[in-house]
Amino acid sequence: MRRVLMTAATSGVEWTSAVELCRALGERGVSVTLATLGAPLSAAQWNGLLGIPGLRVEQSTWRAERLEDVWEDMDAAGAWLLELEARDAPDAVHLHGYRHGALPFKRRPLVVGHECPLAWGEAVRGEPALERDWLSRWEVTRGLRAAGHVAAPTSALLESLDRHYGPLPPASVIAPARRHADFAPSLVREPFLFSTGEWWDEARNLQVLESVAPRLDWPVLVAGGREHPHGGQMRARSVRLLGELSPSALAGYLGRASIFVLPARHEPGGLAALEAGLAGCALVLADIPSLREMWEDAAVFVPPEDTDMLARALRRLVADPALRGRMSTLARTRALEFSPERMADAYLAVYASLEEESQRAPPSQPQLARAT
């Protein structure tokens, strides 16, 4: 394996995961052309790419897939990706996103999912998946079924994609990863609880901490966006909102925090908990399938809507230093298993299987015409 064409939106989990993988692949001698979608890269993002061997960035301003009403941008970005493939002749095409999976690449692509668009409503609103945006559902279905392989960070997400958009082609779970050196635990843990995410995000469910914080002896700090997407800055009474933090500042808070709490209703990938585990926080997590499968026996689990149980679990950890120490050790030990090297090896195995498939027969696209 020598060359990979990879796509990524320039924000969120997708960007973080792509950069981590590019670095791990580069250290194995694999050259990556990273084709970006969304907002232009910030100076901090460019700095984060420095030193990654074999990486070349091709930047675009086409809007990312997860936004609504991006059909023209998706078409234009698709034509651009085909041009990049023709120019670079990569050994594998790796797509962080669904809709471009149906493009006529020379080799069938790997499609990696970070979210199931139809699972959000079920988890957050308690409603069955709706047919509100049938065109979007059709495009995601086409992209997934045309892929040579589908990967997701958790089996919970992979099962959701198969249920809503399947049957899927060959698929696998490839767990997320972060460099442990970027989240070094502090020698002294400080007496505060910490969490991350946009304060307005219903899936993250952070506002339940407002009712829990007054019952605790330690303060609760939350890092993440406060600007609501529909306008206005959100505030909190009992929780200290830190706003957006730089990667180094975030790692610093995680390294000092004694407890990381994530009461999410929906968290398909688990990257935030992974960073906290690497930093040595004791983990208190929502009892949902995606987090259970990654952190079984290495975290305290609480139903996401049960604020009384959440308060009791946090009070017990606050009051018991020995228990906090055990949970911190368990979390870090488990987190270290999710290494970038292990992730890169898994993706390289998928790339090799796709290359073997292309040598046996030319790519064939499922007979799913595009809806108009």
Describe this structure in words.
The chain is α/β, with parallel strands linked by helices and 372 residues long. It is 40% helix and 17% strand. The chain is built from 13 helices and 13 strands. It has helices spanning 12-26, 43-49, 71-88, 119-125, 134-146, 155-165, 209-212, 247-256, 271-278, 289-295, 307-319, 321-335, 340-360, and strands at residues 3-9, 31-37, 55-59, 92-96, 110-112, 149-152, 171-173, 190-196, 220-223, 240-243, 257-262, 282-286, 300-302. It has a seven-stranded parallel β-sheet, with helices on both faces. The two termini are 38 Å apart. The model has no long low-confidence stretch (mean pLDDT 91).
Summarize the amount of helix as a percent range.
40-55%
How many angstroms separate the termini?
A: 38 Å
Order of helices and strands: EHEHEHEEHHEHEEHEEHEHEHEHHH
**How confident is the prediction overall: mean pLDDT?**
91
Main β sheet profile: 7 strands, parallel
Per DSSP E runs of 2 or more residues, the count of β-strands stands at 13
Please state the CA-atom Rg, rounded to the nearest Å: 21 Å
- Structural shape: globular
Structural class: alpha/beta
Strand-residue proportion: 15-25%
Lateral strand order in the biggest sheet? 3-2-1-4-5-6-7
By DSSP (H or I, 4+ residues per run), the number of helices equals: 13
Task: For the structure shown, list the relevant keywords.
alpha/beta, single chain, 13 helices, 40% helix, 13 strands
